[in-house]
């Protein structure tokens, strides 16, 4: 499913009244966490090396040690945590760190079942010496010493009866969603639905591959874990579950668990009786009960920070030294040329008519017929906004000393305006708004690196929002230095990365394989979540106002909400492909011919509890038919993006608007807003082409050859637009195009032959696929693709 949901919650059983536990039926133990201490290694050739460990029973990312420089006997003494069971085989790879691509020197494999264990089943704390085999000829190349600790659960065989029960329960739950509803339908009311989060499709209809039948796989049942001693479950007057702890005489909405907390964790209560958890390992607290999955997610989030920062530092907004492309002031007058001083990098202008040079742009000299006063000079910011320098008083101003008024980036008399409003033009307009509304002097923000999120919250929220328009002066405690922009850039990265911390529970990824952010409907587990969303709204507005980039972007529908644009059906594809496929099936088929039993309600799961929402008043009793299905689709799409996040979204916009009004963003569409906030990076076309697959085309096909010829002719902005069009985001993964993710996991960029030559290209962002019709000429391909990437909605036949 394309959302981040709890993986194991109680659910209704099938019609046969049986219940079963998924973890008991799969025939294999759930992987336990095993700790591997990489001690040292010896091999003949000194080099920069590190060790990578993977498990064949876990899909988690490989664990890596740090790099040891120029040694043939490196010592790490580092602990790596992996999920594995007794039948797992661990692969250890010794890699050499290189500038462009790391090389594998040798490998070793070890079965956990062969390791010595004590009576309790834990690994003995002995050093295991393993032979390293060379990658080239499989000969012995060295040794590596490792120590295992922890417990690997053994594989258990499931009973035949359990397998039968699984089949019976599955069949029963599949029928529950549709067949069991006839009696309720006859009574004129909505039937009780099986547990589901997507739409039902008729059993007698041909549903698309991504559509899910009601009840379906999610109808499988799980037994509820027994309550700990001294606990009791009760219901309040509204039918909501709560739990009573008779030991401490307190209550909580969260179901208590009999599972012990991870090592180093402790549960406490604050003065108001609210439960929170203390991690003595890192000296931090959280409102969420820690689980193995949550701790692993936090570990992966933290381990990728350095690599992500390296990639983030390579982002840019506009290409440098690109004088001709999309210049906001239009073309130079006839006989003029723009050049760059090789020593200082400063731009100057050559008049070939009278063979003179000047610093001032001739296109901006129409604002006044009078020359600048003595000692004055006009220059331009990186965004093309003119400003004036008074060398006598050593001051600068945006007001023209000849007229006393500012000269806008395009508001110059006599300059021919381009009809097309390019991205560069829009940036210039927005930057002019920001610069002309900036406040003098600077605002100082002092934070600690170890507590950047909370320190920044205190600093930003206690200041007047308008003061955040001043020039930023960021200082990290205990670090001396002046902030000329570099410290502020680092602060924006660190803070935007910290917002993703799973412990805060504020945002979640749009899907398991979609790393764009959306608001977490369960953020209310943090009692102060609305204040935090207001704080994040201010922070995002500061990033835009001061021209800084953040670490990760939001989903496209969230950007559309920022721009006050209507959410449409196509927007849901990137966020929830299952609902999208089901809605498309409903839209394209006559549902009156099918007994679907759909009503104007939506069922969803929140923190293990099934909830029902009426899409319109009385929706429980209003059936969906062919006449009103478009209204149903429109209401469901709107609900899907507002589900449980109305208050959070309002708080975010309150914080944003307090810094500057969202109306200033009117120039941009949602794709340009993502570029403005996250920046773009150099796209390696060779890496892109190497990691592309083809369907009904061959790499030598003329349309494929033309496509890559066209891609290489684009500037970085257009390449980023093409990436947005096909993959849904302008950002390349840290590991390059080989690590592109789709809705089902790793998914390489794909070009498929679809349609006729007069069709426009189409994209499938869930699968990173471009449907490229068989165009007859290079010019036709360029025309159609250029039209496609400039559009923001779906594409169909012409």
UniProtKB/TrEMBL annotation:
Cellular component annotations (GO), alphabetically ordered: cytoplasm
Here the segments flagged for biased composition (Low complexity) are: 1-28, 159-191
Give the Pfam families listed for this entry: C2, HECT, WW
Q: Where is the WW domain?
A: 225-258, 259-292, 330-364, 370-403
Which residues are the active-site ones? 766
Q: Which PROSITE patterns is this protein grouped with?
A: C2, HECT, WW_DOMAIN_1, WW_DOMAIN_2
Q: Which residues form the HECT domain?
A: 464-798
Q: One of this protein's GO BP terms? A: protein ubiquitination
- Cite the residue spans of the region called Disordered: 1-33, 157-194
Entry's InterPro entries?
C2_dom, C2_domain_sf, E3_ub_ligase_SMURF1, E3_ubiq-protein_ligase, HECT_dom, Hect_E3_ubiquitin_ligase, WW_dom, WW_dom_sf
Q: PANTHER family attached here?
A: E3 UBIQUITIN-PROTEIN LIGASE SU(DX), HECT DOMAIN UBIQUITIN-PROTEIN LIGASE
Q: What is its EC number?
A: 2.3.2.26
Q: Name one GO molecular function term.
A: ubiquitin protein ligase activity
Keyword field: Repeat, Transferase, Ubl conjugation pathway
> Catalyses which reaction?
S-ubiquitinyl-[E2 ubiquitin-conjugating enzyme]-L-cysteine + [acceptor protein]-L-lysine = [E2 ubiquitin-conjugating enzyme]-L-cysteine + N(6)-ubiquitinyl-[acceptor protein]-L-lysine
Residue ranges occupied by any C2 domain in the UniProt entry: 12-125
Give the SUPFAM superfamilies listed for this entry: C2 domain (Calcium/lipid-binding domain, CaLB), Hect, E3 ligase catalytic domain, WW domain
Pathway in which this enzyme or protein is active: Protein modification; protein ubiquitination
Task: Name the chain's protein.
Answer: E3 ubiquitin-protein ligase
Q: Which domain of life is it from?
A: Eukaryota
Please verify whether the record's keywords include Repeat.
yes
């Amino acid at each position: 499913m394309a959302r981040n949901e709890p993986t194991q919650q109680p659910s209704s059983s099938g019609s046969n009244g049986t219940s079963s536990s998924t973890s008991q039926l799969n025939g294999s133990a759930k992987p336990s966490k095993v700790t591997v201490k990489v001690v040292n290694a010896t091999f003949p050739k000194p080099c920069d090396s590190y060790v990578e460990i993977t498990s064949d029973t876990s899909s988690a990312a490989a664990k890596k040690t740090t790099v040891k420089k120029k040694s043939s006997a490196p010592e790490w003494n580092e602990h790596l945590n992996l999920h594995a069971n007794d039948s797992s085989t661990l692969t250890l790879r010794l890699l050499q760190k290189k500038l462009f691509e790391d090389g594998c020197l040798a490998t070793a494999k070890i079965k956990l079942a062969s390791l010595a264990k004590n009576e309790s089943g834990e690994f003995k704390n002995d050093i295991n010496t393993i032979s390293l085999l060379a990658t080239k000829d499989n000969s012995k190349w060295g040794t590596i010493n490792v120590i295992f600790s922890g417990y690997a659960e053994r594989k258990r065989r499931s009973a035949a009866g359990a397998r039968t029960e699984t089949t019976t329960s599955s069949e029963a739950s599949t029928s529950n969603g549709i067949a069991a509803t006839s009696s309720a339908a006859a009574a004129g009311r909505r039937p009780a639905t099986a547990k589901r989060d997507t739409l039902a499709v008729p059993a007698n209809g041909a549903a698309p591959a991504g559509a899910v039948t009601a009840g379906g796989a999610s109808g499988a049942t799980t037994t509820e874990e027994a309550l700990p001693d001294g606990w009791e479950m009760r219901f309040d007057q509204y039918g909501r579950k709560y739990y009573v702890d008779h030991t401490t005489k307190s209550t909580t909405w969260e179901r208590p668990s009999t599972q012990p907390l991870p090592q180093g964790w402790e549960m406490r209560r604050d003065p108001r009786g609210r439960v929170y958890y203390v991690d003595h390992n890192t000296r931090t607290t959280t409102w969420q009960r820690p689980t193995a999955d949550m701790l692993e997610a936090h570990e992966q989030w933290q381990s990728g920070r350095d690599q992500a920062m390296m990639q983030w530092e390579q982002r840019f907004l506009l290409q440098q030294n690109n004088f001709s492309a999309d210049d906001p002031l239009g073309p130079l007058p006839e006989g003029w040329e723009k050049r760059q001083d090789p020593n200082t990098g400063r731009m100057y202008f050559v008049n070939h008519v009278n063979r003179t040079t000047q610093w001032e742009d001739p296109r901006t000299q129409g604002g006044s017929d009078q020359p600048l006063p003595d000692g004055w000079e006009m220059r331009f910011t990186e965004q093309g906004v003119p400003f004036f320098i008074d060398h006598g008083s050593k001051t600068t101003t945006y007001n023209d000393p000849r007229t006393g008024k500012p000269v806008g980036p395009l508001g110059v008399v006599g300059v021919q305006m381009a009809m097309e409003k390019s991205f560069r033009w829009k940036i210039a307009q927005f930057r002019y708004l920001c610069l002309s509304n900036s406040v003098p002097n600077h605002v100082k923000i002092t934070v600690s690196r170890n507590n950047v999120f909370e320190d920044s919250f205190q600093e930003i929220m206690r200041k007047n929002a308008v003061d955040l328009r001043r020039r930023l002066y960021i200082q990290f405690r205990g670090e001396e230095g002046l902030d000329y922009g570099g410290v502020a850039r680092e602060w924006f990265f660190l803070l935007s990365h910290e917002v993703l911390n799973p412990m805060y529970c504020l945002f979640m990824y749009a899907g398991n394989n979609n790393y764009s952010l959306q608001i977490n409907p369960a953020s209310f587990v943090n009692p102060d979540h609305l204040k935090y969303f207001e704080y994040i709204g201010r922070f995002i507005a500061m990033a835009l106002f001061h021209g800084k980039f953040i670490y990760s972007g939001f989903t496209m529908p969230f950007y559309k909400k920022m721009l006050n644009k209507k959410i449409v059906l196509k927007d849901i594809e990137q966020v929830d492909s299952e609902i999208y496929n089901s809605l498309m099936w409903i839209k394209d088929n006559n549902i009156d011919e099918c007994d679907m039993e759909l009503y104007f309600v939506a069922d969803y799961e929140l923190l293990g509890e099934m909830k029902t929402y009426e899409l319109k008043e009385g929706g429980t009793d209003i059936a969906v038919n062919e006449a009103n299905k478009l209204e149903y689709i429109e209401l469901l799409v709107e609900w899907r993006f507002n589900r449980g996040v109305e208050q959070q979204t309002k708080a975010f916009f309150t914080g944003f608007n307090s810094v500057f009004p969202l109306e200033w963003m009117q120039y941009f569409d949602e794709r340009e807003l993502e570029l403005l906030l996250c920046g773009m990076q150099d796209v390696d076309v060779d890496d892109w082409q190497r990691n592309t697959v083809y369907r009904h085309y061959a790499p030598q096909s003329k349309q494929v050859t033309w496509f890559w010829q066209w891609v290489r002719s684009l500037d970085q902005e257009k390449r980023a637009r093409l990436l947005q069009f096909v993959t849904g985001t302008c950002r390349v993964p840290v590991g390059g195009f080989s690590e592109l993710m789709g809705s089902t996991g790793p998914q390489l960029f794909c070009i498929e032959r679809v349609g006729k030559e007069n069709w426009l290209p189409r994209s499938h962002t869930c699968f990173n696929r471009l449907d490229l019709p068989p165009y007859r000429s290079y010019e036709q391909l360029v025309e159609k693709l250029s039209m496609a990437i400039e559009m923001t909605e779906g594409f169909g036949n012409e």
